[in-house]
Amino acid sequence: MRNFDFAPLYRSAIGFDRLAQLFDDAQRSDTASNYPPYNIELIAEDKYAITMAVAGFSREELEIESERDTLKVVGRRHKDESQKNYLHRGIAARDFEHRFRLADHVKVVGARLDNGLLHIELVREIPEAYKPRRILIDGDNLQLVEAQHAA
């Protein structure tokens, strides 16, 4: 495992102190289970989709929770009381919990279960206050001067 020096980044960037934590989380998740398999897709500039293969899970056995910067998907199978005698068991029947780290202003807008695939739709909605805006130099004084000339 390799350690990264973030000192140069901290000299010129403000508010990226969580970056080291994100890298640590990513390295830890490399050793985590890849069950169930999933895809993350960029649909448009600010639209994303996560598709998870959850064959055998019903809607009641799946839970999606979004809190702050984390999306959690949990699958808990109801215990099958009947004793089945499998000759081969290739379909996984285990519970899972998977967490996704969400960037700022990304939120879940919908989810659906279709043919054993769980589709989760996400969108980044940047508030007006965070969108770029032009700042006039001495703008307030200029407006005051223009108002005095008009009078």
From TrEMBL:
Keywords: Stress response. Residues 29-140 form the SHSP domain. It comes from the Bacteria. The keyword Phosphoprotein does not apply. Belongs to the small heat shock protein (HSP20) family. PANTHER family: PTHR47062, SMALL HEAT SHOCK PROTEIN IBPA. This is Hsp20 family protein.
